[in-house]
Here is the input.
Amino acid sequence: MSIPNRAEIKRAEINRANAQHSTGPKTEAGKKHSSLNALRHGLTGQIVVMPTEDLQAYQSHLESFTGEYDPKGATESHLVQALADTSWRLNRVAALETNLLMLGLAGEAPVTGAPQQVQDAMTIVASLESQSKALSNLSLHSQRLSRQFEKTVAQLRDLQKTRLEKENRDLENLLNIMEMYESKGETYNPSDDGFVFSETEINQAVLARNRKLLIDEAWDHHHDTAAA
Here is the structure.
């Protein structure tokens, strides 16, 4: 074990002195209070639904995003969850801004004896001034959450686009294989080659292909008739 030199001892003394002047919480209660600061507005912490908010409303909110994006797999589901959570917090920002302004408007008008419209206007100005720091802070949170939302949407759309393109290629390959087996009078089980499409998806794809063939044939017939 090495013996600390004079410089190391001096550095340790300085660190201890700085710790004595730290402005952070020192007691367990203070540390707990500090760790729950984000819970005041719920815009930065891990808690999504605040204790004062309606959990059922949040569930409906999440279901609306799930219904819109219809995620497949863990990654897409995670991104949809993130979108719903970010949107929920953005809605909270708007509500907090409204509450701050209403709190200021509930106070006494800074100008008395003037027409009511003038008093209302001055009250709004005074409210904005008194809550300017809090409103500025909320604006920063709103900008951050908006950027986060847009980034997540872009990630989700790119992921789903790639997945759908692959699914379409796989489905097209499956239909070609099925036609080949059918032409030979043989049956084919898609799962034997790792295809995971449902019977409904396969039937819909077959109907879509048949419709396209009919349309192409009708167009070719019309083109040949017009040429003649």
Q: What stands out?
A: The two ends are 102 Å apart (CA to CA). Residues 49 and 184 are 59 Å apart (CA to CA). Residues 17-25, 28-39 have pLDDT under 50 and may be disordered.
